Amino acid sequence: MTEMKKKILEKFKEVYGDKPGARAFFAPGRVNLIGEHTDYNGGHVFPCALTIGTYAVARKREDRKLRFFSMNFEHLGVIESSLDDLKPRREAGWTNYPKGVMWAFGERGYKIPCGLDILLNGNIPNGSGLSSSASVEIVTGYILSELFGLKVSNQDLALIGQFSENNFNGVNCGIMDQFAIAMGKKDHAIFLDTADLSYEYAPIRLKDAKIVISCSNKKRGLGNSKYNERRGECETALSEIQAGMGIRTLGDLTEEQFETVKMAIKDEDCRKRAKHAVYENQRTIKAVEALKKNNIELFGKLMNESHISLRDDYEVTGEELDTLVEEAWKVDGVIGSRMTGAGFGGCTVSIVKDEAVDTFIESVGKAYEAAIGYAADFYVVEIGSGPCEL
Protein backbone atom coordinates (compact mmCIF):
# COMPACT_ATOMS: atom_id res chain seq x y z
CA MET A 1 0.00 0.00 0.00
CA THR A 2 2.90 2.39 0.68
CA GLU A 3 4.03 2.14 -2.96
CA MET A 4 0.51 2.88 -4.15
CA LYS A 5 0.13 5.77 -1.69
CA LYS A 6 3.29 7.38 -3.07
CA LYS A 7 2.10 6.87 -6.64
CA ILE A 8 -1.36 8.41 -6.13
CA LEU A 9 -0.06 11.38 -4.12
CA GLU A 10 2.46 12.16 -6.90
CA LYS A 11 -0.25 11.94 -9.55
CA PHE A 12 -2.57 14.13 -7.45
CA LYS A 13 0.15 16.79 -7.21
CA GLU A 14 0.67 16.60 -10.99
CA VAL A 15 -3.07 16.95 -11.74
CA TYR A 16 -4.15 19.44 -9.07
CA GLY A 17 -0.97 21.22 -7.92
CA ASP A 18 1.11 21.00 -4.78
CA LYS A 19 -0.98 22.64 -2.03
CA PRO A 20 -1.11 21.17 1.50
CA GLY A 21 -4.07 19.14 2.79
CA ALA A 22 -4.11 16.13 0.44
CA ARG A 23 -4.99 12.87 2.22
CA ALA A 24 -4.97 9.31 0.86
CA PHE A 25 -7.63 6.62 1.44
CA PHE A 26 -8.52 3.05 0.42
CA ALA A 27 -11.70 0.95 0.19
CA PRO A 28 -11.61 -2.70 -0.88
CA GLY A 29 -13.48 -4.60 -3.55
CA ARG A 30 -15.44 -7.66 -2.51
CA VAL A 31 -16.21 -11.16 -3.65
CA ASN A 32 -19.25 -13.14 -2.56
CA LEU A 33 -18.31 -16.71 -1.70
CA ILE A 34 -21.92 -17.98 -1.73
CA GLY A 35 -25.43 -16.50 -1.48
CA GLU A 36 -26.11 -14.89 -4.86
CA HIS A 37 -29.24 -12.86 -5.69
CA THR A 38 -30.45 -13.50 -2.14
CA ASP A 39 -29.67 -10.03 -0.78
CA TYR A 40 -32.82 -8.38 -2.12
CA ASN A 41 -34.87 -11.47 -1.26
CA GLY A 42 -34.37 -11.23 2.51
CA GLY A 43 -31.81 -14.02 2.56
CA HIS A 44 -28.24 -14.56 3.71
CA VAL A 45 -25.04 -13.68 1.87
CA PHE A 46 -21.42 -14.59 2.60
CA PRO A 47 -19.04 -12.03 1.07
CA CYS A 48 -15.54 -10.94 2.02
CA ALA A 49 -13.53 -7.80 1.37
CA LEU A 50 -10.40 -8.14 -0.79
CA THR A 51 -6.95 -6.59 -0.64
CA ILE A 52 -7.57 -5.04 -4.09
CA GLY A 53 -9.85 -2.03 -4.31
CA THR A 54 -10.05 1.74 -4.85
CA TYR A 55 -7.31 4.14 -3.80
CA ALA A 56 -8.19 7.82 -3.47
CA VAL A 57 -6.62 11.18 -2.68
CA ALA A 58 -8.81 14.11 -1.65
CA ARG A 59 -8.26 17.72 -0.64
CA LYS A 60 -10.73 20.39 0.47
CA ARG A 61 -11.29 23.44 -1.73
CA GLU A 62 -12.32 26.96 -0.75
CA ASP A 63 -15.29 27.06 -3.12
CA ARG A 64 -18.21 24.75 -4.04
CA LYS A 65 -16.45 23.20 -7.02
CA LEU A 66 -15.91 19.42 -7.36
CA ARG A 67 -13.10 18.13 -9.53
CA PHE A 68 -12.66 14.43 -10.28
CA PHE A 69 -9.80 12.58 -11.96
CA SER A 70 -9.42 8.81 -12.43
CA MET A 71 -6.10 7.17 -13.24
CA ASN A 72 -8.19 4.36 -14.78
CA PHE A 73 -9.76 6.80 -17.27
CA GLU A 74 -6.91 9.28 -17.74
CA HIS A 75 -8.07 10.09 -21.29
CA LEU A 76 -11.18 11.75 -19.79
CA GLY A 77 -9.05 14.28 -17.91
CA VAL A 78 -10.46 16.27 -14.99
CA ILE A 79 -14.27 16.19 -14.81
CA GLU A 80 -15.74 19.23 -13.09
CA SER A 81 -19.00 19.60 -11.21
CA SER A 82 -20.37 21.48 -8.21
CA LEU A 83 -22.00 20.77 -4.87
CA ASP A 84 -24.89 22.86 -6.22
CA ASP A 85 -25.39 20.49 -9.18
CA LEU A 86 -25.65 17.03 -7.65
CA LYS A 87 -27.80 15.45 -10.34
CA PRO A 88 -27.12 12.25 -12.29
CA ARG A 89 -26.00 13.07 -15.82
CA ARG A 90 -25.07 10.60 -18.53
CA GLU A 91 -22.10 12.72 -19.62
CA ALA A 92 -20.78 12.68 -16.02
CA GLY A 93 -19.87 8.99 -16.49
CA TRP A 94 -18.14 7.37 -13.53
CA THR A 95 -18.34 10.55 -11.43
CA ASN A 96 -22.07 9.85 -10.92
CA TYR A 97 -20.99 7.34 -8.22
CA PRO A 98 -19.08 9.74 -5.93
CA LYS A 99 -21.57 12.52 -6.68
CA GLY A 100 -24.42 10.16 -5.74
CA VAL A 101 -22.81 9.58 -2.33
CA MET A 102 -22.42 13.34 -1.77
CA TRP A 103 -26.09 13.78 -2.68
CA ALA A 104 -27.07 10.93 -0.32
CA PHE A 105 -25.09 12.50 2.56
CA GLY A 106 -27.12 15.68 1.99
CA GLU A 107 -30.37 13.69 1.96
CA ARG A 108 -29.36 12.22 5.36
CA GLY A 109 -28.82 15.72 6.78
CA TYR A 110 -25.03 15.78 6.64
CA LYS A 111 -23.63 19.11 5.50
CA ILE A 112 -20.70 19.18 3.08
CA PRO A 113 -19.36 22.71 3.56
CA CYS A 114 -16.98 22.98 0.60
CA GLY A 115 -15.91 21.41 -2.67
CA LEU A 116 -13.16 18.83 -3.19
CA ASP A 117 -10.41 17.79 -5.55
CA ILE A 118 -10.52 13.99 -5.80
CA LEU A 119 -8.29 11.48 -7.58
CA LEU A 120 -9.13 7.78 -7.81
CA ASN A 121 -7.10 4.75 -8.86
CA GLY A 122 -8.71 1.32 -8.72
CA ASN A 123 -6.93 -2.00 -9.13
CA ILE A 124 -10.22 -3.91 -9.34
CA PRO A 125 -10.72 -5.13 -12.93
CA ASN A 126 -13.35 -2.77 -14.39
CA GLY A 127 -16.74 -4.40 -15.09
CA SER A 128 -15.60 -7.61 -13.39
CA GLY A 129 -18.38 -7.90 -10.83
CA LEU A 130 -16.01 -7.37 -7.87
CA SER A 131 -17.92 -4.23 -6.99
CA SER A 132 -15.80 -1.40 -8.27
CA SER A 133 -18.83 0.92 -8.08
CA ALA A 134 -19.59 0.06 -4.43
CA SER A 135 -15.88 0.43 -3.63
CA VAL A 136 -15.95 3.95 -5.13
CA GLU A 137 -19.10 4.73 -3.09
CA ILE A 138 -17.57 3.56 0.20
CA VAL A 139 -14.24 5.32 -0.33
CA THR A 140 -16.15 8.54 -1.15
CA GLY A 141 -18.29 8.21 1.98
CA TYR A 142 -15.21 7.51 4.09
CA ILE A 143 -13.47 10.60 2.65
CA LEU A 144 -16.48 12.81 3.49
CA SER A 145 -16.73 11.37 6.99
CA GLU A 146 -13.02 11.87 7.72
CA LEU A 147 -12.37 15.22 6.01
CA PHE A 148 -15.44 16.93 7.45
CA GLY A 149 -15.52 15.17 10.85
CA LEU A 150 -18.98 13.70 10.22
CA LYS A 151 -18.26 10.50 12.15
CA VAL A 152 -20.54 8.26 10.12
CA SER A 153 -20.33 4.59 11.19
CA ASN A 154 -19.14 2.06 8.62
CA GLN A 155 -22.56 0.38 8.67
CA ASP A 156 -24.17 3.74 7.85
CA LEU A 157 -21.64 4.23 5.04
CA ALA A 158 -22.94 0.97 3.55
CA LEU A 159 -26.57 2.12 3.79
CA ILE A 160 -25.75 5.53 2.30
CA GLY A 161 -23.85 3.86 -0.56
CA GLN A 162 -26.80 1.58 -1.33
CA PHE A 163 -29.25 4.49 -1.08
CA SER A 164 -27.19 6.52 -3.57
CA GLU A 165 -26.91 3.63 -6.03
CA ASN A 166 -30.66 2.94 -5.83
CA ASN A 167 -31.90 6.51 -5.95
CA PHE A 168 -29.18 8.48 -7.76
CA ASN A 169 -27.78 5.92 -10.19
CA GLY A 170 -30.98 3.92 -10.68
CA VAL A 171 -29.53 0.47 -9.97
CA ASN A 172 -31.87 -1.49 -7.72
CA CYS A 173 -29.03 -3.22 -5.84
CA GLY A 174 -29.28 -4.94 -2.47
CA ILE A 175 -27.08 -4.09 0.52
CA MET A 176 -24.45 -6.82 0.16
CA ASP A 177 -21.73 -5.06 -1.86
CA GLN A 178 -21.58 -1.90 0.20
CA PHE A 179 -21.87 -3.82 3.48
CA ALA A 180 -19.07 -6.28 2.63
CA ILE A 181 -16.76 -3.41 1.66
CA ALA A 182 -17.57 -1.09 4.57
CA MET A 183 -17.50 -3.86 7.20
CA GLY A 184 -14.66 -6.02 5.84
CA LYS A 185 -12.36 -7.83 8.29
CA LYS A 186 -9.06 -9.44 7.38
CA ASP A 187 -9.21 -13.25 6.91
CA HIS A 188 -12.95 -13.31 7.65
CA ALA A 189 -16.09 -13.41 5.54
CA ILE A 190 -19.32 -11.79 6.71
CA PHE A 191 -22.37 -13.97 7.27
CA LEU A 192 -25.04 -11.32 6.77
CA ASP A 193 -28.80 -11.68 7.12
CA THR A 194 -29.99 -9.05 4.66
CA ALA A 195 -33.50 -9.05 6.14
CA ASP A 196 -32.38 -7.32 9.37
CA LEU A 197 -28.62 -6.61 8.84
CA SER A 198 -27.62 -8.91 11.69
CA TYR A 199 -24.22 -10.38 10.91
CA GLU A 200 -21.33 -12.40 12.23
CA TYR A 201 -17.73 -12.72 11.09
CA ALA A 202 -16.68 -16.24 10.12
CA PRO A 203 -12.95 -16.97 9.90
CA ILE A 204 -11.83 -18.34 6.53
CA ARG A 205 -9.12 -20.87 7.27
CA LEU A 206 -8.03 -22.17 3.90
CA LYS A 207 -5.32 -24.61 4.82
CA ASP A 208 -3.29 -25.36 1.69
CA ALA A 209 -5.78 -23.65 -0.64
CA LYS A 210 -6.34 -20.27 -2.27
CA ILE A 211 -9.25 -18.18 -3.52
CA VAL A 212 -8.87 -17.62 -7.26
CA ILE A 213 -10.99 -15.07 -9.14
CA SER A 214 -11.43 -15.77 -12.86
CA CYS A 215 -12.52 -12.67 -14.77
CA SER A 216 -14.45 -13.47 -17.95
CA ASN A 217 -13.63 -10.05 -19.48
CA LYS A 218 -17.20 -9.91 -20.72
CA LYS A 219 -18.42 -6.47 -19.69
CA ARG A 220 -21.89 -6.02 -18.27
CA GLY A 221 -23.85 -2.92 -17.37
CA LEU A 222 -25.95 -3.60 -14.29
CA GLY A 223 -28.55 -0.90 -14.80
CA ASN A 224 -29.53 -2.08 -18.26
CA SER A 225 -28.96 -5.80 -17.70
CA LYS A 226 -31.63 -8.25 -16.63
CA TYR A 227 -30.88 -7.56 -12.96
CA ASN A 228 -33.96 -5.41 -12.36
CA GLU A 229 -36.07 -7.91 -14.33
CA ARG A 230 -35.00 -10.79 -12.05
CA ARG A 231 -35.78 -8.67 -9.04
CA GLY A 232 -39.27 -7.98 -10.39
CA GLU A 233 -39.88 -11.70 -11.01
CA CYS A 234 -38.99 -12.46 -7.38
CA GLU A 235 -41.32 -9.70 -6.15
CA THR A 236 -44.16 -11.17 -8.22
CA ALA A 237 -43.49 -14.65 -6.81
CA LEU A 238 -43.38 -13.32 -3.25
CA SER A 239 -46.68 -11.44 -3.54
CA GLU A 240 -48.42 -14.55 -4.93
CA ILE A 241 -47.12 -16.69 -2.03
CA GLN A 242 -48.08 -13.95 0.47
CA ALA A 243 -51.69 -14.13 -0.72
CA GLY A 244 -51.95 -17.46 1.15
CA MET A 245 -49.12 -17.36 3.69
CA GLY A 246 -47.79 -14.76 6.12
CA ILE A 247 -44.14 -14.33 5.13
CA ARG A 248 -42.13 -11.11 4.72
CA THR A 249 -39.52 -12.32 2.24
CA LEU A 250 -38.59 -15.39 0.21
CA GLY A 251 -35.71 -15.80 2.68
CA ASP A 252 -38.27 -16.75 5.36
CA LEU A 253 -38.99 -20.06 3.60
CA THR A 254 -37.25 -23.41 4.02
CA GLU A 255 -36.94 -25.70 0.98
CA GLU A 256 -39.76 -27.88 2.33
CA GLN A 257 -42.10 -24.91 2.84
CA PHE A 258 -41.35 -23.66 -0.66
CA GLU A 259 -42.20 -27.02 -2.20
CA THR A 260 -45.63 -26.96 -0.53
CA VAL A 261 -46.53 -23.43 -1.70
CA LYS A 262 -44.69 -23.10 -5.02
CA MET A 263 -47.77 -23.74 -7.18
CA ALA A 264 -49.25 -20.47 -5.89
CA ILE A 265 -46.74 -18.82 -8.25
CA LYS A 266 -48.52 -18.76 -11.59
CA ASP A 267 -45.67 -18.03 -13.97
CA GLU A 268 -43.10 -20.81 -14.41
CA ASP A 269 -40.16 -18.41 -14.76
CA CYS A 270 -41.14 -16.57 -11.56
CA ARG A 271 -41.42 -19.95 -9.83
CA LYS A 272 -37.87 -20.88 -10.90
CA ARG A 273 -36.50 -17.52 -9.70
CA ALA A 274 -38.17 -17.97 -6.31
CA LYS A 275 -36.85 -21.52 -6.03
CA HIS A 276 -33.32 -20.25 -6.52
CA ALA A 277 -33.78 -17.51 -3.89
CA VAL A 278 -35.08 -19.99 -1.29
CA TYR A 279 -32.63 -22.82 -1.98
CA GLU A 280 -29.62 -20.49 -2.30
CA ASN A 281 -30.41 -18.94 1.06
CA GLN A 282 -30.49 -22.37 2.71
CA ARG A 283 -27.28 -23.36 0.89
CA THR A 284 -25.56 -20.28 2.33
CA ILE A 285 -26.63 -21.15 5.89
CA LYS A 286 -25.32 -24.73 5.36
CA ALA A 287 -22.07 -23.46 3.84
CA VAL A 288 -21.25 -21.31 6.87
CA GLU A 289 -22.01 -24.26 9.17
CA ALA A 290 -19.67 -26.40 7.06
CA LEU A 291 -16.89 -23.82 7.42
CA LYS A 292 -17.36 -23.67 11.19
CA LYS A 293 -16.78 -27.45 11.25
CA ASN A 294 -13.76 -26.98 8.95
CA ASN A 295 -15.53 -29.04 6.26
CA ILE A 296 -14.16 -27.22 3.23
CA GLU A 297 -15.17 -30.09 0.90
CA LEU A 298 -18.85 -29.61 1.75
CA PHE A 299 -18.43 -25.84 1.33
CA GLY A 300 -17.05 -26.48 -2.17
CA LYS A 301 -19.91 -28.83 -3.06
CA LEU A 302 -22.43 -26.14 -2.04
CA MET A 303 -20.58 -23.60 -4.20
CA ASN A 304 -20.98 -25.95 -7.18
CA GLU A 305 -24.70 -26.42 -6.46
CA SER A 306 -25.06 -22.64 -6.23
CA HIS A 307 -23.70 -22.23 -9.75
CA ILE A 308 -26.04 -24.88 -11.16
CA SER A 309 -29.02 -23.10 -9.59
CA LEU A 310 -27.86 -19.72 -10.95
CA ARG A 311 -27.50 -21.32 -14.38
CA ASP A 312 -30.72 -23.33 -14.53
CA ASP A 313 -33.24 -21.62 -12.22
CA TYR A 314 -32.08 -18.00 -12.12
CA GLU A 315 -30.61 -18.00 -15.64
CA VAL A 316 -27.97 -15.32 -15.04
CA THR A 317 -24.75 -17.14 -15.98
CA GLY A 318 -24.27 -17.17 -19.77
CA GLU A 319 -21.72 -18.99 -21.91
CA GLU A 320 -18.65 -17.21 -20.52
CA LEU A 321 -19.27 -17.90 -16.84
CA ASP A 322 -20.49 -21.45 -17.53
CA THR A 323 -17.32 -22.19 -19.50
CA LEU A 324 -15.09 -20.91 -16.68
CA VAL A 325 -16.93 -22.94 -14.05
CA GLU A 326 -17.32 -26.15 -16.06
CA GLU A 327 -13.62 -26.10 -16.98
CA ALA A 328 -12.74 -25.45 -13.32
CA TRP A 329 -14.72 -28.51 -12.24
CA LYS A 330 -12.53 -30.68 -14.49
CA VAL A 331 -9.31 -29.69 -12.67
CA ASP A 332 -8.06 -31.96 -9.87
CA GLY A 333 -7.62 -29.88 -6.74
CA VAL A 334 -10.59 -27.55 -7.33
CA ILE A 335 -12.67 -27.72 -4.15
CA GLY A 336 -15.55 -25.60 -5.54
CA SER A 337 -16.27 -23.05 -8.25
CA ARG A 338 -19.19 -20.77 -9.07
CA MET A 339 -20.11 -17.50 -10.70
CA THR A 340 -20.08 -14.54 -8.33
CA GLY A 341 -21.79 -11.16 -8.58
CA ALA A 342 -24.83 -10.25 -10.64
CA GLY A 343 -23.97 -12.52 -13.56
CA PHE A 344 -24.21 -11.97 -17.34
CA GLY A 345 -20.41 -11.62 -17.41
CA GLY A 346 -18.06 -10.66 -14.63
CA CYS A 347 -16.25 -13.28 -12.58
CA THR A 348 -16.19 -16.71 -11.04
CA VAL A 349 -14.75 -17.56 -7.63
CA SER A 350 -12.98 -20.86 -7.04
CA ILE A 351 -11.29 -22.47 -4.06
CA VAL A 352 -8.23 -24.27 -5.39
CA LYS A 353 -5.62 -26.38 -3.60
CA ASP A 354 -2.20 -24.72 -3.57
CA GLU A 355 -0.55 -27.36 -5.73
CA ALA A 356 -3.28 -27.04 -8.39
CA VAL A 357 -3.35 -23.22 -8.77
CA ASP A 358 -0.89 -23.04 -11.70
CA THR A 359 -2.56 -25.94 -13.53
CA PHE A 360 -5.97 -24.36 -12.90
CA ILE A 361 -4.96 -21.02 -14.41
CA GLU A 362 -3.28 -22.66 -17.40
CA SER A 363 -5.92 -25.25 -18.31
CA VAL A 364 -9.02 -23.14 -17.59
CA GLY A 365 -7.41 -20.19 -19.40
CA LYS A 366 -6.58 -22.25 -22.49
CA ALA A 367 -10.04 -23.90 -22.68
CA TYR A 368 -11.80 -20.56 -22.14
CA GLU A 369 -9.91 -18.77 -24.90
CA ALA A 370 -10.54 -21.67 -27.30
CA ALA A 371 -14.29 -21.65 -26.55
CA ILE A 372 -14.96 -17.90 -26.23
CA GLY A 373 -12.35 -16.37 -28.52
CA TYR A 374 -10.61 -14.07 -26.04
CA ALA A 375 -8.66 -14.52 -22.81
CA ALA A 376 -9.81 -14.56 -19.21
CA ASP A 377 -7.74 -13.00 -16.42
CA PHE A 378 -6.95 -14.73 -13.14
CA TYR A 379 -6.31 -13.25 -9.69
CA VAL A 380 -5.17 -15.16 -6.63
CA VAL A 381 -6.69 -12.97 -3.91
CA GLU A 382 -6.46 -12.46 -0.18
CA ILE A 383 -9.20 -11.38 2.22
CA GLY A 384 -8.65 -7.85 3.47
CA SER A 385 -10.17 -5.21 5.76
CA GLY A 386 -12.65 -2.35 5.25
CA PRO A 387 -11.96 1.30 4.34
CA CYS A 388 -9.04 3.16 5.89
CA GLU A 389 -6.87 6.24 5.63
CA LEU A 390 -3.44 5.36 4.26
Describe this structure in words.
This protein is of the alpha+beta class. It has a domain at about 1-205: Ribosomal Protein S5, domain 2 (2-Layer Sandwich), CATH 3.30.230. About 40% of the residues lie in helices and about 20% in strands. It contains eleven helices and 13 strands. Strand 10 (about 335-340) and strand 11 form a beta hairpin. Helix 4 (about 155-165) runs antiparallel to helix 5 (about 175-180). The model has no long low-confidence stretch (mean pLDDT about 95).
CATH level-1 class of the domain at 2-204: Alpha Beta
Distance between the termini: 8 Å
**CATH structural fold name of the domain at 2-204:** Ribosomal Protein S5, domain 2
Give the overall average pLDDT: 93
What's the β-strand tally? 13
User: Can you list the strand order of the major beta sheet?
Assistant: 5-4-6-3-1-13
Low-confidence stretches: none
Counting helices, strands and paired strands, the structural category is alpha+beta
